[in-house]
Design brief:
Strand order of the largest sheet: 1-4-3-2-5-6-7-8
Number of strands: 14
Mean pLDDT: 90
CATH topology of the largest domain: Rossmann fold
Number of helices: 15
Number of domains: 2
Low-confidence stretches: 5-25
Helix content: 25-40%
Length: 405
């Protein structure tokens, strides 16, 4: 098992913040709060985008954010790390062998003792279950953001059950949407430690124009195109979109699916069985996919479950008409004024909404404009970052002195 620092594997990661002031035991006043984000990242995804936004957004603020990423040894240049290093965020790679959880915990213990963070902020079931206990034993306050649950096979359900039990021991639990917060309270997370903080939008690179976006994706400039972006997994519902496609046989429409995941093989077989494989382009994992939404005539989010989906923000930022299932935090982001909302697992309703968007482009453009305005008005990153800063200070004030010696 090895621990790699950004300074050893890439650009040195010194934050361009004002000089750090020594933090008092209760993190009071205007002193800097040192936060260590812990994540076991996928290549791309909403959770990963949130962690990047929290760390990069903290630059120049009273929060000193650093990131510890649990990376398989086989992925020495993980794509999650690039934007952090380029922005100047200090990154530490923890690279344990597969299922070597004791070695991972030992590395996290050494890292916490060396960095002496005021708060450890975990993201995802592995850091919540494996790594948060390290900080807790050292007396460091622990915060988690619950981005949502995926369900799936028995192994994943077991991991999520362990994660849900662990939430009761955190100093603060952040839910990214109201249904998720209600579920966590029902499952026993103390309400005085539970915080509802919907995700915000920190725009990355400027979205490309339609022609450039289609060129980047390698798809024809002409014709109507449905866009789908996400992890190819059951809870994201790519199969629901594929099931809707035969119901759009009278429309000259093609589909671009951007993403990878365990359900890809099954989805490819489904497309063949439905006779729509020739209308589907499988793009795989696409870096900077958020810049390419203008390639689509309609963006479809066909999920069975969601938190506050970042892909929805990317579509809103790109002024692209949206059809989405009304699950999780989606209705808190867009209403019928900004998007066409349908019930989950209903291919006929999904097909009808897509046909309406493609058949009434003027009305669709009005909704897309309203969505872009709402994104700028209600999902600004500054209040979001201040909410997290307040949570960090709150858990610091309530915690005893850490045992980091």
């Amino acid at each position: 098992m090895r621990l790699r620092e950004a300074a050893k594997v890439g650009r040195a990661a010194r934050s361009p913040m004002s000089p750090m002031l020594p933090c008092s035991p209760n993190c009071g006043g205007d002193r800097t709060v040192s936060v260590l984000h812990v994540v076991a990242p996928a290549a791309f995804g909403g959770l990963e985008a949130v962690v990047q936004s929290l760390a990069i957004g903290a630059l120049g603020s009273p929060v000193q954010a650093r990131v510890a990423a649990v990376i398989p040894p086989s992925q020495p240049e993980h794509p999650f790390l690039g934007p952090l290093r380029e922005a100047g965020v200090e990154v530490f790679e923890v690279a344990p062998p597969a299922r070597s959880y004791l070695q991972e915990r030992a590395a996290m213990t050494a890292l916490c003792r060396r960095l002496r963070p005021d708060v450890v902020h975990t993201h995802g079931y592995r850091p919540d279950v494996v790594d948060a206990g390290v900080a807790r034993r050292l007396g460091v306050p622990v915060v988690t953001t619950v981005h949502g649950f995926t369900g799936g096979g028995w192994k994943n359900r077991l991991y999520e059950a362990l994660q849900r039990r662990a939430f009761r021991r955190f100093d603060a639990v952040v839910a990214v949407c109201r249904p998720l917060a209600n579920a966590l309270a029902h499952e026993g997370v103390p309400v005085d430690r539970l915080h509802l903080v919907p995700n915000a939008w920190i725009g990355a690179a400027r979205p490309l124009e339609r022609a450039a976006a289609r060129c980047a994706l390698g798809v024809p400039q002409e014709g109507q195109r449905i866009g789908w972006v996400g992890r190819l997994s059951h809870e994201k519902g790519p199969d629901v979109l594929l099931a809707a496609l035969p119901l759009l046989a009278d429309l000259p429409v093609a589909v671009s699916l951007l993403g990878v995941g365990k359900a890809e093989a099954a989805c490819r077989r489904q497309a063949v069985a439905l006779g729509v494989a020739h209308r589907v382009t499988w793009h795989g994992a696409v870096p900077d996919a958020g810049c390419l939404f203008a390639a689509f005539d309609v963006f479809v989010l066909s999920s069975r479950a969601e938190g506050t989906p970042i892909a929805l923000f990317e579509a809103m930022a790109s002024h692209v008409p949206i059809v989405a299932t009304a699950v999780g935090g989606v209705p808190d982001v867009v209403s019928a004024t900004e998007a066409r909302l349908v019930a989950p697992e209903d291919p006929a309703a999904l097909a009808g909404a897509i046909a309406d968007v493609l058949g009434s482009p003027a009305r669709a453009r009005v909704r897309a404009g309203a969505a872009r305005a709402k994104l700028e008005r209600e999902f600004d990153p500054e209040p979001w970052l201040r909410r997290y800063h307040a949570i960090y200070r709150g858990v610091c004030r309530a915690a005893p002195a850490p045992r980091l010696a």
